[in-house]
Amino acid sequence: MKDIVFCSNNCFVLYSAAVQAKNSENKESVPSLPQSPMKERPPKAFHQYSNNISTLDVHCLPQLQEKASPPSSPPIMFPPAFEAAKVEAKPDELKVTVKLKPRLKAIHSSLEDCRPPSKKWKGMKWKKWSIQIVIPKGSFKPPCDDEIDEFLKKLGTTLKPDPVPKDYRKCCFCHEEGDGLTDGPARLLNLDLDLWVHLNCALWSTEVYETQAGALINVELALRRGLQMKCMFCHKMGATSGCHRLRCTNIYHFTCAIKAQCMFFKDKTMLCPMHKPKGTHEQELSYFAVFRRVYVQRDEVRQIASIVQRGERDHTFRVGSLIFHAVGQLLPQQMQAFHSSKALFPVGYEASRLYWSMRYANRRCRYLCSIEEKDGLPLFVIKVVEQGHEDLVLTDTTPK
């Protein structure tokens, strides 16, 4: 009889014919096993194994009816994992079905469970959306800003702020209105009451020089001379920037000198087109922006006196939050009672001041201050003008 080889825990155990005879009592009732196609091996019954395992109780499997066994087939070569599903088993061989399902990707930082994608139901049709842009033939002129503003104004969909009022201040030198370009005439500086000059127009005048503190000296002197000088470029009065070449009488406005391509130098000198050197020069100045603090030096006491002495004025004089309206007057018989050791109290004086409200902690209102006469003595009147309330009038015999 042939030996039978069993494999258990990677250990081979050979059972000889003696073991086969021990279990032969059940052969009559149990059919015999089919013959194994493996090669016959010589019996080996006297091997001892120390595998530290318990004794195996082996039972013979029921033997099936003997049938003609098919011819031995060559060993099966298993394909790789990705080709396992494509292998078709033969009818008589063991059939193995492998289904590969895609693994769902874990979504981090999400409390929801991963759900499988929705099914595509049978008969569902997918539609594609395409965009087609048609460009008309011919020249297309885009609308300008004014046309867009007019269109939005008709629709009424936007809130447009009030237009900025036009700046009617005029430079006494070049006669141009408003502030100029930074790299040009620059901003306007106040010279006197309603008298303005551009910074560079005054700075590049021949008589004017700048102090270390930024004060422009002799601006009024240059202005008086410019009223009699005519510009060589525009033939208008007010030219004060002359050519630095000796015995050259060409004189320009600052803006006209730039247009005439005069050459300016860093030492505050200028040469007309007839006397400037050819090509570039190391000391040539091509950028005229002034970002430092510059102001016109003037006598403020004399300026205030000239404002007070004027009768009918079309201008408002303001110092901080105090707006000056009228200076008033004093008669000879009032001189004794309408003054103190520090101030005069002219009758008819009127001024207004913007100050904190007496009713609200975070609001300002207008206080109209005036001086009147009562029984030969000054009467100080303060009228509180506040929106939403009636005017409150306060009077007393002293300014305090």
How would you describe the overall organization of this protein?
β7 (241-242) and β8 (251-252) form a beta hairpin. This protein is 12% helix and 18% strand. The protein is flat, with a radius of gyration of 56 Å. Mean pLDDT is 75; it is low at 6-22, 24-34, 36-40, 81-87 and 89-93. It has helices at residues 17-22, 145-155, 199-203, 219-226, 254-259, 300-309, and strands at residues 4-8, 11-15, 188-192, 195-198, 209-210, 215-217, 241-242, 251-252, 263-264, 270-271, 295-296, 317-319, 322-326, 350-356, 364-374, 377-385, 392-396. The relative contact order is 0.05. The protein has six helices and 17 strands. It has 400 residues and is α+β, with helices and mostly antiparallel strands. The strands form six sheets. The protein has a six-stranded antiparallel sheet, with no helix packed on it. The chain has a three-stranded mixed sheet with strand order 5-6-11.
Which features characterize this protein?
6 helices, Herpes Virus-1, Double Stranded RNA Binding Domain, flat
- The protein's oligomeric status is single chain
CATH overall fold name of the domain at 188-296: Herpes Virus-1
In the predicted model, the low-confidence regions spanning at least 5 consecutive residues are 6-22, 24-34, 36-40, 81-87, 89-93
**Helix/strand/pairing category:** alpha+beta
Count of helical regions: 6
The sequence of SSEs as H and E is EEHHEEHEEHEEHEEEHEEEEEE
Q: What gap, in angstroms, lies between the N and C termini? A: 141 Å
CATH class of the domain at 188-296: Alpha Beta
Gyration radius, in Å: 56 Å
Mean of all residue-level pLDDT scores: 75
Shape: flat
Q: How helix-rich are the residues, as a percent range?
A: 10-25%
- Major sheet description: 6 strands, antiparallel
CATH homologous superfamily (4th level) name of the domain at 188-296 = Zinc/RING finger domain, C3HC4 (zinc finger)
Q: How many beta-strand elements?
A: 17
Tell me what portion of residues adopts beta-strand conformation: 15-25%
Strand neighbour order, sheet with most strands: 12-13-14-15-16-17
Using the 3D structure, state the CATH architecture of the domain at 188-296: 2-Layer Sandwich
